């Protein structure tokens, strides 16, 4: 889908990105974009600033599991062995 719009550059060199462009790129205020110059044109690419070594944490599967564990903790559905760090370490060492 091609989305085109005209934006004015402010005296500080800034532009305001219209809502339709934000929606088309699936970005929100506060997100990051990369600007590439390709054949004399500026190309905006959405970017997430996550350390590659930590990317696993942000996968859909991991976040689903985190949500389940948070719910279990709220409902106190965890092993009594893990109620304190000392009990957990003792259990790991056994």
TrEMBL record:
<dbReference type="GO" id="GO:0003677">
    <property type="term" value="F:DNA binding"/>
</dbReference>
<keyword id="KW-0238">DNA-binding</keyword>
<dbReference type="InterPro" id="IPR037914">
    <property type="entry name" value="SpoVT-AbrB_sf"/>
</dbReference>
<dbReference type="Pfam" id="PF04014">
    <property type="entry name" value="MazE_antitoxin"/>
</dbReference>
<protein>
    <recommendedName>
        <fullName>SpoVT-AbrB domain-containing protein</fullName>
    </recommendedName>
</protein>
<feature type="domain" description="SpoVT-AbrB">
    <location>
        <begin position="4"/>
        <end position="49"/>
    </location>
</feature>
<dbReference type="InterPro" id="IPR007159">
    <property type="entry name" value="SpoVT-AbrB_dom"/>
</dbReference>
